[in-house]
Design goal:
Layout (H helix, E strand, L loop, with lengths): L1 H21 L4 H8 L2 E6 L7 H10 L2 E4 L5 H4 L9 H12 L3 E9 L5 H4 L5 H18 L6 E6 L27 H13 L4 E6 L7 H16 L5 E4 L2 E2 L6 H12 L4 E9 L1 E2 L8 H19 L4 E6 L8 H5 L4 E2 L12 H11 L4
Helix pairs in contact: 1-2, 2-13, 7-8, 10-11, 11-13
The structure holds ligand G3I.
Length: 354
């Protein structure tokens, strides 16, 4: 971890010197000066849209498939794997000098019917999960630098959610808390010992029962030598009065355990008027939330990546998820024009010297 911090400090000072003359031309420039990764979740079927590809390549130094490396996309049938869409994200990243983050190997949601309706026994599910983790991570070894190994395993009280993988029927570790998470991380490390392995969570960004449970799990894993390298804080935000001090405190306590933190799914949704518009005041309040999140991350050297969930309001999960009542959550508008949130992110990144 010390080398990471030192190399970032040196790299940042050099980048800052260059930028001090020219000024950041992009989020990517500003992130380079701050020594962090700035990423976006992407949809490979949109790479053929010139404006989408150009903005993604110019503004970000990291990319993550929004869906293309999830179970239904990688394994639509029991008989085989389909890596085409995931490979398209890797090819895009290689063409533009970007890192690739993988998402996600174990999630209670969005699993293919052949799996959820297969009436598999725990031993059969255990074999299927180990086979999935091993096959996918070996396919992307050396190409995907970090993985969300397990996603959203906890409920708001910090208890394990009932799920296919935990206890319905699970992989043989029902009722044993972290055991199935530990098993997934150990399989992931066996498959690709060089990939950074993250636990990714929603609504556990500040200081609450869920983040306390994540902290306890990471502390236990580190104490017992379970291979874990980081925690992903999703930060899907729908309130403009975000307690960024609590987020900074949570990031600090996690990184003090010796793991990295990635902001993994940042978006700040706003109420839409009947014509789908938002107020100028809300756009500026949104910008301050983005600024606060970037600042909370940069306060801890172990917070090494900031990723938004998509990057243009033209393509965001929120519209469909909110039946059109909320949206405008991302740094670029529907015409790929930077919003106040973009300016706030750049200012915070470019102006920050660890
Ligand atoms: O690809 C099919 C298409 O063939 C079909 O015609 C269409 C209509 O049924 O569905 C398409 O699949 C959709 C998929 O996105 C690709 O667009 C699924 O229905 C839809 O459920 C899926 O939603 C994604 C969701 O995760 C579930 O995987 C969202 O785009 C994605 O933004 C969202 O992302 C999650 C993170 O992975 C974890 N954290 C929360 C975050 C938001 O829910």
């Amino acid at each position: 971890m010390e080398f990471l911090i030192c190399s970032r400090i040196v790299g940042r000072w050099l980048a800052v010197a260059v930028l001090a003359i020219s000024g950041p031309r992009s989020l990517r420039d500003a992130a380079d000066s701050a020594g962090v990764l700035v990423g976006a979740a992407a949809r490979p079927y949109l790479f053929s849209e010139a404006a989408y590809s150009a903005a993604l390549a110019h503004e970000f130094n990291m990319v993550q498939p929004e869906n293309a490396m999830k179970w239904p996309d990688l394994r639509p049938t029991a008989s085989g794997f389909d890596f085409r869409d995931g490979d398209a994200v890797v090819r895009f990243a290689q063409a533009h000098g970007m890192k690739v983050r993988g998402h996600c190997l174990v999630w209670h949601q969005y699993n293919p019917e052949w799996l959820t309706q297969g009436h598999f026994t725990p031993p059969q599910l255990s074999h299927l999960l180990q086979e999935h983790v091993s096959t996918v991570m070996k396919h992307y070894a050396g190409l995907v630098f970090a993985w969300d190994v397990v996603n959203e395993a906890l409920d708001e009280n910090g208890r394990f959610k009932d799920s296919l993988w935990y206890n319905q029927p699970g992989i043989g570790m029902a009722g044993k808390d972290f055991a199935y998470v530990e098993r997934a991380f150990r399989w992931a490390h066996e498959a690709d010992p060089h990939a950074l392995l993250f636990y990714n969570e929603a609504e556990g960004e500040g200081l609450n029962r869920k983040s306390d449970a994540v902290y306890a799990m990471v502390k236990d894993f580190k104490h017992r030598g379970v291979p874990i390298d980081g925690v992903g804080l999703q930060l899907h935000i729908s309130r403009l009065d975000l307690d960024t001090a609590a987020i900074a405190g949570n990031i600090a306590r996690l990184t003090a355990l010796g793991v990295q933190v990635h902001i993994t799914e940042l978006d700040v949704s706003l109420p839409l008027d009947p014509s789908g518009g938002v107020s100028s005041e809300d756009l500026h309040r949104q910008a301050e939330v983005y600024r606060g999140v970037v600042r909370a991350c940069l306060q801890s050297p172990g917070c090494t990546a900031i990723q938004t969930w998509g990057f243009t309001d033209k393509y965001s999960w929120i519209g469909s998820h909110s039946h059109g009542t909320r949206g405008a959550a991302l740094p670029f508008d529907r015409a790929y024009k930077p919003k106040p949130a973009y300016d706030a992110m750049i200012e915070e990144l470019a102006g920050h010297h660890k």
